Amino acid sequence: MSLFNHLITSAEEKFEFAEWWRLRKESLVNGDIGIIMASREGTPAGFITYLVQDGIGKLEACHVLDVPERQDIAVGLLERGIGLLRKRDDLMGISGELYYIAGSIDPLAEYLRKEGATVYIRVGMIRALDDTIPVHVLPKGYSLREWTFNDIPEVAAFFCQAFEDSIDLVFWEHFDHLEKAITYIENVASSTVWSHVPLTNASISYNGQMCAATLCGVPEKNKGAIYLGVIREHRRKRLGSFLLAQALTAFKNASFKTVGLEVTHRNTAAYQFFRNHGFRDSHRLIGYTFFSR
Fold first, then answer.
1. Predicted local distance difference test score (pLDDT) of residue 195
2. Which H/E stretch holds residue 87?
3. Rounded Cα–Cα distance for residues 8 and 16 (Å)
4. Which of 211, 243, 230 is closest to 269 using CA atoms?
5. Low-confidence residues in the chain, pLDDT < 70
6. Rounded to whole angstroms, what are the CA distances from 39 to 12, 33, 73, 217, 289?
7. Can you give the pTM of this predicted structure?
8. Distance CA 161, CA 126 (A)
9. Close Cβ partners of 39 (under 8 Å, ≥ 6 residues apart)
10. Fold category of 142-281 in CATH
11. How much is the pLDDT for 3?
12. Distance in angstroms (rounded) separating the CA atoms of residues 231 and 208
């Protein structure tokens, strides 16, 4: 195996890089996509991928082999990628999320801030479905139902309210006002890629008002994904635990092996909630926005 192939295989073991890269290239329309390589003593040591589409430049995935200088190499790749994008005169902005697999993301976030970017961090979490999932009882006065496509305006309004105190730039892009949220959820609900499992898209209401809900799908083979929200006034009543257990059970019954989600780094309450329900850290994402012309 060549050293280049070893590098790609190492990334494949971490997050199924080959499939991700294939889908990125197939979905590319009127844009550029590529990989910047880094070498150590003449041999490949890491890479960062870039995408340019619709006037926006993005650095999307960074992987470095386990070598002593891996943090310096990662920052060097980031610097090279930002430099490449800044030289282009066809961009309105540089903005996106960087999936970093190797070690601490703090040096990369620090570099981005130093260069003038607005930065946020999200934690990817994953849970195996090979154990017994606890059963929770719905509190008295609350009602449960599976929501459908016709309920999307109400579901969108709910998530805008539920996420308003934990929003980062990704959530802001989708849920800062109702029309955007409706469009986003409609796209997710009708996507042929983001397929669905019965009993995972559910809502809980109190006195006719939606106060907790899940939005779930299957972005990868054998791996479910979950959005979960609870209105502030109805938290600490185990509504989130009830909906999460229901979704996990549905995925398990459908023969899924794992379920994943992402939490805003500063939302420590949500992070601890999912830790308490068996989720463990899988990756970190750095979101960044540089400029617009």
1. 58
2. none
3. 10
4. 230
5. 1-17, 101-103, 165-173, 191-196, 219-222, 291-293
6. 19, 20, 9, 38, 28
7. 0.75
8. 25
9. 45
10. Aminopeptidase (3.40.630)
11. 53
12. 14
Residues in the chain, overall count: 293
Q: Which amino acid is at 30?
A: N
Residue with token string 């650095």? 59
Reading the block at residue 64, the tokens are: 């470095």
> What is d(CA 50, CA 91) in angstroms, rounded to the nearest whole number?
13
89 by DSSP, 3-state: which? coil
Six-digit token pair at 249? 């059970």
Nearest to 62 by CA among 51, 77, 80: 77
Confidence at residue 71, expressed as pLDDT on a 0 to 100 scale: 86
> Where do the domains of the chain lie?
3-116, 142-281
Closest CA to 283 of 263, 269, 266, 268: 263
Question: What letter represents residue 219's amino acid?
Answer: P
Q: Which fold has domain 3-116?
A: Aminopeptidase (3.40.630)
